[in-house]
Amino acid sequence: MDIIVCIKRVPQTAEADVTIDYTGKEIEKDRLSFDMNESDSYALEEAVLLKEKFGGEITVISLGHQDTEDTLRIALAKGADNAIRIKAEDFDELDGYKTAQIIKASISDLNFDLIFTGCIATDDAYSQVGVTLAELLDIPHASLVIFIDTSEKRAHVHRELEGGLMEHLDISLPALCTIQTGINEPRYASLIAIRRAAKKEIKVLGKEEIKDENILLNTQIEELFIPPKTKEVEFLTGSPGESAGKLANIFKEKGLI
Amino acid sequence: MSEIYTLIEHRQGEIRDISFELLSCGRKLAEKTNSNLTALILGHNTENLVGKIKSQAHRILVIDSEVFKDYNSESYQLALSDIIKKANPFITLMGHTAFGMDLCPALATQLEIPFTTDCLDIDVVDNKITVTRQVYDGKLNAKIAVRDNPSYLFTVRAGCFLAEESDLKTEIANIDTSVTEPDYRKFVEYIETPAGDVDITKSDVVIGIGRGIKEQENLAMVEEFADAIGGVVACSRPIVDADWLPKDRQVGSSGKTIKPKLYIAVGISGAFQHVSGMKGAETIIAINKDPNAPIFNEADYGIADDLFKVVPVLKEKVMELK
Amino acid sequence: MNFELTNDQKMLQSEVRKFAENELAPLAPEIDISGEFPKESIKKLAELGLLGIFIPEKYGGSEFDFVSLAIAIEEISRACASTGVIVAVNNSLCGYPILQFGTEKQKQKYLPLLSSGEKIGAIGITEPNAGSDVASLESTAVLDGDHYILNGAKRFITNGTEAGIFIVFAYTNKELKHKGISAFIVDRDTPGFSLGNHENLMGIRATGNCELIFEDCKIPKENLLGEEGQGFYICMNTLDVSRIDIGAQAVGISQAALDEAVKYSKERVAFGKPICKFEMIQNMLAEMATQIHAARMLVYYSAWCKDAGIKRFSKEAAMAKYYAANIAVDVTRKAVQIFGGYGYSKDYTVERLYRDAKILELYEGTSEIQKVVIASELLR
Ligand SMILES: Cc1cc2nc3c(=O)[nH]c(=O)nc-3n(C[C@H](O)[C@H](O)[C@H](O)COP(=O)(O)OP(=O)(O)OC[C@H]3O[C@@H](n4cnc5c(N)ncnc54)[C@H](O)[C@@H]3O)c2cc1C
Ligand SMILES: Cc1cc2nc3c(=O)[nH]c(=O)nc-3n(C[C@H](O)[C@H](O)[C@H](O)COP(=O)(O)OP(=O)(O)OC[C@H]3O[C@@H](n4cnc5c(N)ncnc54)[C@H](O)[C@@H]3O)c2cc1C
Fold first, then answer.
1. Whole-prediction pTM
2. Residues 6 or more apart in contact with residue C114 via CB below 8 angstroms
């Protein structure tokens, strides 16, 4: 079973200070740490689990700048066989649609039974690339997948809906799944695997190799701004003892205890 | 006259809340662009559904067929691509839900019309569209310009438009369809999360824990606090992903929606998927060491400090006052 | 000259950092209080290959270089200083001497056990009456047929309570002074070998530190490491390598303290502004960052010497260990200072870091001994 996994290197912003840079359209990235997008790491792990079961090859692909190769190498260390970087520096501004078109053009000569992507990237939060790519390739897709049981020809997948409900689908291969977090437990790369992966070559594709002339950008960032406050929070300050004391009093006043 | 379309989302015979929000959004856009609002329903035995949204749009287009009883992006796409190609509405809206996320990018790509997802707001000035989205874990908003085109497709985030009453005169039209469920994607069944021992939707006081709790052993500390204040422990998604609590304790769009008297978010950043499940709480408290965490935009009271220092003391203080 | 890490070093750094942040840091406060050896963490570290970092693959190791060793120990120590030294001892103080001085049979027997974490490694040099002055040790090993009979006691042995394999130094010939010391590989289950008191330490409290007691302990002859009388040399040679680790541990602890201090100084308000706006706070932060950078360079350099095959790098290793230990104590002290009273409270990480840092100036040769080494190299 040959699987392509699309991954993205994203800044880790959940616990970091995020500031807008001088252009007003980008954030200051030099102080942030970067890592594989969260749901992509689940997508990769799912591919590795299937490879362990069925054999075959995993190709990881990422549209990104030079440092993305570090992330691709980690993917190689975690079980991917081949890695491709598409030079983001060749393509100006990107959105989910444009990214999917570029990826489509760059995998045209690859064989695959499945393509996995993460269900959302934590930086631009589009949730577009996977489903768009499936449509461009004219293969069936399932998004937000949290369970896969596949044979060579068809796959039973569970999609996660709202309110804890799941949807059981039966799809034919080749197909694309966007993977939701929690489907498995992503592994860390062992040192030996890292050493082997460090020596592997990463295929780099640029504008010349991607012959599609009609790549379109749907959307462009005009400005970034700090979300307006929807509600004025009252911060309870002081030492943990003081702030907790104030809060306990509020509970009391409101009759909550 | 140009048209705004909204796609009505329903599941297991019920119209979903997002559909009413989309109708509100659609009416605003229709007013602004001097358009008609059409609500699209694909379903089976749709009278009941149609009744629920009557007077909310200028027109309801119904495609009633066994094949649309349960959502399947592929059969929906077969039908919708035809309709949209013919009618060429200015804007088509759907929810940024498991349904819209699965359908919008594929449908728009097939139709070759510009689209974007997870819009908080959509603004039209001289037929030029800018949308507001959220980026970087909800820490920033982005204003996005959309490429010029006669027709657009957007998914809208839940909770951004208020569902409102309206009294439009609604025309109802039916369209026949020959679409059948394709063999390459078949709907099999719905699967419910098994119910556990605690029903978080029934408790007046809910303490939600998030990734800030760092490891499973630390749950005990929060359980003790919950016992002291007489509440139950719920959580954000990563806690369920890590198998530290069962799925039925998850609050948020893919978990439960709760409306307790008191919700205390502990080490939760406040992603919209989480917030949508708890913002109906009467009083919201957030304890998070990052003073810029989006959760503080939802909270009535906040403590910007280390939860491991605050929670044990808070337990003591609550015990004293009880 | 090239200051850039290689691909595999970069990957090791990012993966170990992630592992340490997710899996080790959360446990650090807890095991500091309980003193409990982090058995589960060590199991996971073994799976990743971190218990045999430079051990060749044919002995079950990961076959990385010594710069990688330093990077890994720094990242682990940044999250948890106890775990950092546990790993360092296993790699450099037990694995290294076997790799360097062991027979092929010894390597095949012991290195896979150490690399896989099946057995933890420890080293016993220090005795109740012999610390800095290694040659004054009192343990003896007397050859009796196929066995050496070992008598004596060792003190302050890191990993002692958990280890299965010990490198132990004892006199086989007292007359020859330090040239009469020999090294042995001692299995935990050797008859006559028992554990003494568990140390109640100020810092790095979860390292299973205890006494070793040997009473007519029968060690098979083939467990002699190197040759009779080579023990002192083995010990010094091993300490050169392990000082890379301790330097790296110091850098890791210091980096953790700086990270905490930077964050806190932005949040804490006094006299109407965040304390990071005060020049005296900035002064401390700038000094800390510079000290850490200098220490890291010294550590990397000594590791590079080892990788480059430079035979004698005792001076470089001693400088790295001495300087890094010295600044770690200073950097963690400054971090506590920046935290004010809160820094003195067990509620804050810097309190632990300050305690953890102090050991760096003491073990694997006190700072005074490092300076003795450096000076004696200068005066050679
Ligand atoms: C389709 C879809 C559906 C989803 N459905 C849901 C859902 O139903 N429910 C849900 O919750 N999520 C859901 N998510 C995931 C959501 O996007 C977020 O990833 C998730 O809510 C983040 O959880 P968190 O806040 O616990 O973790 P994080 O975002 O990692 O935040 C952890 C927070 O803890 C704080 N913290 C860390 N340490 C401490 C400390 N010592 N003291 C105090 N604070 C600390 C940090 O500052 C940070 O703000 C969904 C995502 C998708 C794509
Ligand atoms: C937590 C911990 C873990 C340890 N782990 C191990 C282990 O795993 N294995 C092991 O074998 N040992 C271990 N040790 C022992 C450690 O290496 C010794 O404590 C150290 O070498 C110092 O020896 P000492 O304590 O006997 O001090 P002493 O040698 O008695 O020194 C006392 C003081 O005199 C100074 N001094 C001594 N000689 C000179 C000199 N020539 N010039 C100037 N000053 C001098 C010292 O610098 C020191 O300040 C550990 C110790 C601790 C506390």
1. 0.92
2. C51, C52, C55, C90, C94, C95, C98, C120, C121, C165
